[in-house]
Amino acid sequence: MKIKSQRDFWSGLMFLVVGVVFAVGATNYSMGVSARPGPGYFPLLLSIIMGVLGAIILFKALTIEKEGGDPIGHVAWRPLLIIVAAIAMFGFALPRLGMVISIPLLIVVTSLAGDEFHWKGVLLNVVVLTAGSWAIFILGLKLTIPLWPTIMGLGA
Q: What is the pLDDT of residues 27-47, one digit of tens each?
């Protein structure tokens, strides 16, 4: 079988594998029923949708001819590594530094991954996303996410 589009093949395979892995992981949680879904219900549905999407893209890559085989281009390693490092840093910082410091830190670091960095836009994102996250997660959903650094003794 000949791959007719390398980009579609590898992206379809990635979606399919991630969908299957998350579907298997979601089965560790109770499913509930449609009227009262459990914690595994939504992740299972999303992973099934992702796997089906991957299978469709994979099928398309093997059947529809693309000019030149639609090769995969250069991998942008710098932005990829910055984004992954920023997410890991956020996961480490949130319980220690709180939401008020961790979210702006995440936004500033991820903004460095792009080609265009403007402080005005970054600061606007910091204010809007921090306030929005506070409103959604702490005020609206009443999650116990620390708002301030634990060293300040203010907690959630």
A: 898 888 888 888 888 999 999
Q: What is the pLDDT of residues 71-99, one digit of tens each?
A: 777 888 999 999 999 999 999 999 999 99
Q: Based on the fold, state whether residues 14 and 62 are members of the same structural domain.
A: yes
* Residue 1 domain flag: no
Q: Residue 32 forms beta bridges with which residues?
A: 37
- Residue 21, both tokens: 């892995």
Alpha carbon distance 148, 111 (integer Å): 23
> Is residue 65 within 8 Å of 99, Cβ to Cβ?
no
Query: Residue 154: pLDDT above 70?
Result: no
Regarding whether 81 and 54 lie in a shared domain, the answer is no
The whole-angstrom separation of Cα 147 and Cα 155 is: 6
Is 51 found in the same domain as 28?
yes
Diameter of the chain measured on Cα atoms: 62
Look up the domain containing 119 and give its range.
77-152
